[in-house]
Structure formats: C-alpha cells, structure tokens
Amino acid sequence: MSHSKIIADADGAIVDYDAEFLSAGERSALLAELEQVQDRFDRDRVLMYGKTIDSPRLVCAFGDDGLHYRYAGVDRTTHPWTPHLRAARDRIAAACGHPFNYALVNLYRTGDDYIGWHADKVSDLVPGSAIASLSLGAVRPFQLRHKSTDATHEVLLASGSLLVMRGTCQQFYKHALPRRRGVTEPRFNVTFRHVRAG
Ligand SMILES: O=C(O)CCC(=O)C(=O)O
Ligand SMILES: [Fe+2]
C-alpha cells in the first residue's frame, strides 16, 4: 500500500502521501529533465526578520506565462513548462481535482542544503487549492509541526513520491526539510500550486 494519510485533523488540516506516485519511467525522465535545466537554478535572496539572506538551496520556478507568486520578498518570473514537468502537472491535477499553473522547484545539492521551518503563503493561491509536493532523487526526511500543540510528523520522502498539503494545513502547521549530514546525492522537490491570476 503506497498511499497513506499523514494528517487529518478536526480543524481541517490534511496531508496525504503516495510513496509511488510516479512510475520508474516517469521518475527517471523527470529527473533527467530537471538535471538538464539545472543551470537555470539559483539561490533565493530571502527577506527574513528584516535581513536579506541567500537561501541554503537552489530555486527555479516554472509556470504559465505572466504569472507572479511572491513569497518572503522574492518575486520570481516563471520559465515555461518543460515536457515532463507538464506531464506530471497534468497527472497531479487529475489526482487533486483542480488545475495547477505554477511549480516552484527546489534543488538540495547535498544533505547540507535544507529549508527551515515555515508555512507556505496561501493568500496568492486559489482558496481551497492544494499544494502538491513531488520529490525526485535523494530520500530526505520532511517534518510537519503543529503551530500550537507542537505535534510533529516525519515522512521520508521517496524519489517519485507525492505529498499533498490541503485544507487548513498552512494555517495550523509549519514544515521543514532539515539538513542531513552524509547525504551526497541531490534532491529536487517540485511544489505545484494554483496561483490566483491578476
Ligand atoms: O523540499 C521540500 O520537500 C519542501 C519544500 C517547501 O516546503 C517549499 O518549497 O515551500
Ligand atoms: Fe513549504
């Protein structure tokens, strides 16, 4: 059984995980495609507590023409969809029951790259839409922590897996991908989002 429910709270936070969302063929094709466009990735200059810092990972955005999604003071223009990314988007849209027009891709070059505790900004997203997170490459632990109870969940995100956050997840939980010493393989993470137009 590759599907599991990670969170289903009374206050409406939902997190689902499918360890084997992509087939082996889809997985290697998308990984190869992302490796090919790796030179488009760079560090985010993130505004945090009034200071600008370089993100400890590389980032690149793909999406429909002319879309803007701002987070933490960053306003990235999108690259056009690449074929395998578009194919994955279409399958994920079918699974989630709504379209996606934006994909934020993180590249964690080694276990030293990470993302700290945060909740994703949902005010620019279509209300009720999901954030669907596709992982490729190195297996890394992903953590979710309830903002008031501190209840913590950890999932080892496999290559080709899909984790979907929806409902009130961003309101009640933070998430992080911590450093993991000793990991030498890169990991790509693609979060598909439905950004509000205009
Ligand atoms: O790499 C991950 O699994 C999480 C990425 C993430 O939380 C984000 O891009 O907002
Ligand atoms: Fe996030």
Q: Low-confidence parts, pLDDT < 50 over ≥5 residues? A: none
Small-molecule binders here are: 2-oxoglutaric acid, fe (ii) ion
CATH topology term: Jelly Rolls
Number of helical regions: 3
Pfam family, one: 2OG-FeII_Oxy_2
Domain Fe2OG dioxygenase: 99-196
Keywords: Dioxygenase, Oxidoreductase
Protein name: Alpha-ketoglutarate-dependent dioxygenase AlkB
Please summarize what this structure is.
With 198 residues, this protein is an alpha+beta fold. It has helices at 24-36, 83-96, 169-172, and strands at residues 3-8, 13-18, 42-48, 51-63, 69-71, 74-76, 102-108, 115-118, 131-137, 140-146, 152-157, 162-167, 173-177, 187-193. It contains three helices and 14 strands.
Folded structure, characterized:
With 198 residues, this protein is an alpha+beta fold. The chain has one domain: Jelly Rolls, CATH 2.60.120. It is 16% helix and 44% strand. It has helices at 24-36, 83-96, 169-172; strands at 3-8, 13-18, 42-48, 51-63, 69-71, 74-76, 102-108, 115-118, 131-137, 140-146, 152-157, 162-167, 173-177, 187-193. A hairpin with a 2-residue loop joins strand 5 (69-71) and strand 6 (74-76). Helix 1 packs across helix 2. The N and C termini lie far apart (41 Å). The mean pLDDT is 93.
